Amino acid sequence: MAPDRAAGLAECARALAEGEVSSRTLVEETLARIEATQGTLNAFRLVRAEAALAEADAADRELAGGTRRADRERPLLGVPVAVKDDMDVAGEPTAFGCCGEFPPVAGDGEAVRRLRAAGAVIIGKTNTCEFGQWPFTEGPAFGETRNPWHTEHTPGGSSGGSAAAVAAGLVPAALGSDGAGSVRIPASWTHLIGIKPQRGRISTWPRAESFQGITVNGTLARTVEDAALLLDAASGQHEGDVHRPPALRVSDAVGREPGRLRIALSLKPPFTALPARLRPDVRARVVALAERLAALGHEVEEADPPYGAIGLTFVPRATVGIAERVREAPHPQLLDRRTRGAARLGRLLGGAPLRVARRAEATLQRRVGALFEMYDVVLAPTTATPPPRIGALAQLNGLGTDRAMIAACPYAWPWNVLGWPGVNVPAGLVGDGLPVGAQLLGPANSEPLLVSLAAQLEADLRWHEQWPTAQFNGAVQEFRPPTEA
Fold it and tell me: Coil, helix or strand for 419?
């Protein structure tokens, strides 16, 4: 009988390398867990059972034959992982949350190609809302993906399937994508580490850039080590990529002392045209993390990035990105009415407004970057609220959805405009046991610093030791950060 939960990514890789387990066994157990929970959690759009078993057998032959390359070249040999269904996997359709039949794609996207080169077994593709637009993972194409901590609630979105799969222990880690918080938001609402890396760190090829550069691929895992390991395995550029940051070994920062840092605690939402308010219980959890950071020796004080009217640059890029996807859709008549509305706006904003928005990025980077002359890291809420109930946003009209999204998730999207790294860390549970998180945000290419700080917090708070119940009924114990001795 398969174990209830997957071991971590690093632990699976170690056990495989030392001959304690076979890849086929890990994949069979993973498939059994997915099958047992698909009717409840609905994390996967597509499961590659036959192909994954064949890939596992090939990995076992490589492991047994002693022909394996150095660990740093094949660090995930035989380890099952999942990817979001906006990423191309050869021979499989890429529906990206949409209704209708989609043809299989000819080749892997660059991120998937690199995971395969690292030895990973691609177990399946996880659910996402239509074109990744919303912080929930529901739709007529696949139904409702549910939160392992409380199945009446969403795991968030748009990488909600990846988050649900990791949080429930179906897979040790998964790739997602983040265009306005779509890795960090579901990580926050499912008690995970979610890394949104520097733009271009993980390729979005076959797109030279995604959603006019605001969307990046990132990682979800239960531990900082696992999230960083998957990030390193997937990182790198295709020759056609627009954005090409310098190479980094982010996992080397795990366990490395970050030193005494100056941390800006930012609780004020960036300006939006619609109201947003930080819920007091979420605020209390984020402040508790700030207090832990101070207890660890860091200098923490309240300060907000000078965002200004950054939202005016986000909307053209996001809606033009939607319009581009709609033009390519094989079944446009089946798209959500809100998608069609966003595409209409994108077509209107695709000329001069888009050019102005993109030119403004350098100015915004200089203005917000000035904060990092005084501080090393920004600590902010990832969301303003805990996860909403299933259906709370899915049936709203366009304006109603925008209002609900901004009210729940006003904090994550500015870092997509800037293109800089951010890491969600668990901040605890509120209410009836609903997870919330906080973001560690840094300037360009600061993933090692953010990962080092996140790992220090993890060692202190041990959040990865807490799981949702095996029945996924939400009956969890309240998590309280330890008080100072």
Answer: coil
Has 125 been annotated as catalytic? Answer: no
- Distance from C-alpha of 266 to C-alpha of 479, rounded to nearest angstrom: 23
**Diameter of the chain measured on Cα atoms:** 61
Q: How far is CA 215 from CA 179, 204, 280, 407, in A?
A: 4, 9, 30, 21
Span 40-97, pLDDT tens digits: 999 999 999 999 999 999 999 999 987 555 466 799 999 999 999 999 999 999 999 9
28: three-class secondary structure by DSSP = helix
- Predicted confidence at residue 284, as pLDDT, reads 98
* In contact, 138 and 129? CB cutoff 8 Å: yes
- Determine which one of 22, 23, 84, 203 is catalytic: 84
In the chain, the amino acid numbered 285 is: R
**Residue 144: what are its φ and ψ, rounded to 5°?**
-120, 125
pLDDT per residue as tens digits for the range 439-458: 999 999 999 999 999 999 99
Cα–Cα distance measured from residue 311 to residue 405, given in angstroms and rounded to the nearest whole number = 14
203 noted as active-site residue: no
What are the start-end ranges of the H helices in 329-419? Answer: 337-349, 352-369, 398-408, 414-418
Fold of 9-465: Amidase signature (AS) enzymes (3.90.1300)
If you write DSSP's letter for every residue of 415-468 in order, what string do you get? HHHHT--EEEEEEEEETTTEEEEEEEE-STT-HHHHHHHHHHHHHHH-GGG---
- Amino acid at site 461: L
pLDDT at 474: 39
Q: What SS3 class is residue 204?
A: coil
**CA geometry: angle 194, 326, 154, nearest 5 deg:** 35
Q: What is the pLDDT of residues 15-33, one digit of tens each?
A: 999 999 999 999 999 999 9
* DSSP H or E stretch at residue 173: strand 173-178
Lowest mean pLDDT among 2-11, 224-233, 377-386: 2-11
Whether residue 209 contacts residue 242, with contact meaning beta carbons closer than 8 Å, is answered with yes
Q: How far apart are the first and last CA of the chain?
A: 42
Active-site residue identified among 23, 182, 203, 210:
182
Confidence (pTM): 0.95
Q: How many Å apart are CA 71 and CA 61, to the nearest integer?
A: 16
> What one-character DSSP code corresponds to residue 202?
B
The whole-number pLDDT of residue 481 equals: 35
Active-site hit among 22, 23, 125, 158: 158
Cα atoms in the Cβ-side hemisphere of radius 13 Å centred on 254: 16
Q: CA 33 to CA 6: how far, in whole Å?
A: 9
Q: Parse the chain into domains and list their residue ranges.
A: 9-465
Q: For tokens 């799969």, what's the residue?
A: 165
Across 206-334, where does the E strand assignment appear?
Answer: 216-221, 262-265, 299-302
